Amino acid sequence: MHAADKGFFSRLASFNDSFASNLPATLERMAAVAAGLDPRAPAAAANELQAMLHTVAGSAATFGYRGLGHHARALEQRLRVLMTFDAVAASDWASWTSELGQFVEAGRRDPRGFN
């Protein structure tokens, strides 16, 4: 193996370790932001959640968390749809935040074995 390859794989392993070590805090932050989401004025919380979900969805598969990434992408896409409407029923927000809660709980239990 070339030195450049060793350096690449070393950096990739470091990024993988960083993703894994930051994931619990990311999941906790998602839960906290979702808990504070006000259906009457959801923009700030929804934007933060969208950014976090986008990051997790984009990185997860690279680091061996394929199922987690797939679910993060699905939640992100549903959130984007909700954000496009001027008015969304509180029950629709509640349904979405419930799904996010299930995602967070499953991620806490077993982020690599996420189904």
Automatic annotation (TrEMBL):
An annotated GO BP: phosphorelay signal transduction system
SUPFAM superfamilies, alphabetized: Histidine-containing phosphotransfer domain, HPT domain
Keywords, sorted A to Z: Two-component regulatory system
InterPro entries reported in the protein's UniProt record: HPT_dom_sf, Sig_transdc_His_kin_Hpt_dom
Ranges for domain HPt: 19-80
Domain of life according to the entry: Bacteria
Entry protein name: HPt domain-containing protein
Organism: Telluria aromaticivorans
Organism classification: Bacteria, Pseudomonadati, Pseudomonadota, Betaproteobacteria, Burkholderiales
